[in-house]
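Entry for 2-acetamido-2-deoxy-beta-D-glucopyranose complex. Fields follow.
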Amino acid sequence: MLGASIGIFIILNLNNAIVFRFTNVVCESYNKSWVIWQNCRLKAVSRSKVILNMNASVFYPANSVKIHIKLFKKANGFKPWLMDRNIDACRFIKSRHDPIMRIIYGLFEDFTNVNHSCPYVGSQIVEGFYLRPEILNLPFPTGDYMLALRWYLGMSASPTTDTNVSFSFVEDLLKST
Ligand SMILES: *[C@@H]1O[C@H](CO)[C@@H](O)[C@H](O)[C@H]1NC(C)=O
Ligand SMILES: *[C@@H]1O[C@H](CO)[C@@H](O)[C@H](O)[C@H]1NC(C)=O
Ligand SMILES: *[C@@H]1O[C@H](CO)[C@@H](O)[C@H](O)[C@H]1NC(C)=O
């Protein structure tokens, strides 16, 4: 019992010592008759908390949504790192079948109205989204990363929009008290 309490205490302390925050965001639409970004911006609310707000207007219902996900790690520029996969978002939202997407979605599902099955149309919102290491719950090497999501709406073979989010993950053990 005591062992378990100490274990929990240490985990909480480690979480406090992790800096996990957004550093940049870029949203781009390749078909402005379908998607327009009204907002795509970071806001620093404190030294350790940076929030992401996004607002996309989607003018036609998207019945099919495919996402190409790539993770990059910074080392003399961003280099592809570990993850390169295609997700059927309409299938994911119903079945949560993809373990990597489950991690990504778990980080922002509390902050978005994109929480229902397809189709998506109208304002797609992400508001007040900040990164929580306790939700990520993964050992991650310290570094700067970019998660690039390329969205294909409908049956189009060319991308409709990109959302590229950069973040840093720093395990700062010296900070733990
Ligand atoms: C943009 O999206 C609209 C609505 O789905 C579609 O009719 C049009 O063909 C698309 N344009 C391009 C260049 O893909
Ligand atoms: C998103 O953008 C639309 C169009 O400009 C606007 O009407 C709506 O209020 C915005 N929503 C939020 C939450 O910012
Ligand atoms: C989906 O998001 C909306 C807006 O944030 C919220 O009102 C609603 O309760 C959410 N639905 C589910 C099933 O989480």
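NOTE: The longest strand covers residues 50-62.
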